[in-house]
Amino acid sequence: MPDGLWERIAPLLPPPKPRRHRYPGRRPIDDRAALAGIVFVLKTGITWNQLPTSLVGCSGVTCWRRLRNWTEAGVSPALHELLLAQLRALGELDLERCAVDGSHVRALKGGPRSARLRSTAAVPAPSAT
């Protein structure tokens, strides 16, 4: 990760939790290493367990947990806006190659409705009496 980009991303990340005084446990992995692991997994498409620890300096599970915590803290939308603004400023935002799916665009008024669906539940047999 280039230093200039990291300097812009770091303020968006939540501060780390304070360590316990008596039994502090292991030192937490650096946010920059975790972000490098997250980007590597997203770019290559490998699973979190396949992330080579020696390459990024932390495990895939650690990267997954950090991504989950950052998502819950609302880092993703702010990071997305930052990266889009930087691409626009550099003139490298190409909207000819973009994809939109249902997770990003709300279907207004519920979208088109199909015919009424029939129940597929088991129908009780008619009475033999």
UniProtKB/TrEMBL annotation:
Residues 1-79 form the Insertion element IS402-like domain. This is Transposase. It comes from Geodermatophilus pulveris.
